[in-house]
Amino acid sequence: MSTQEVVNQILNTVIDTCTRLSIVDMGLIEAVAVDDAAQTIEISIRPTTPFCLFLSGIETEIQTLIANNSQVSGYSVQFLDCTEPWAVEKMSEAARATLHV
Prior knowledge:
The structure is a single chain. The chain is α+β, with helices and mostly antiparallel strands. Helix content is 30%, strand content 23%. The chain has a single domain (3-82), classed as Fe-S cluster assembly (FSCA) (GMP Synthetase, Chain A, domain 3), CATH 3.30.300. It has three helices and five strands, in the order αββββαβα. The strands form two sheets. It has a three-stranded mixed sheet with strand order 3-4-5, with helices on one face. The chain has a two-stranded antiparallel sheet with strand order 1-2.
């Protein structure tokens, strides 16, 4: 499995505490940069609100999942500011259907 596939698998298991949906389905992932040679990843996440209280929990969950995976040796998580706000349209169809939006 490629590093990108591993990262996708990891991020799909990270749950947004407020909605109980994955952060991928919620459309929170803005970018993922993978350096296969160094086995490192950089993840950019756009919170749904600048006042989100659960960002540290999301980062901790990502850290735990990466620590348990031998294909990724390093990572960084950047939480983007809300100058460009998150929008419902970023959610997957399945997430919108689940939340009835």
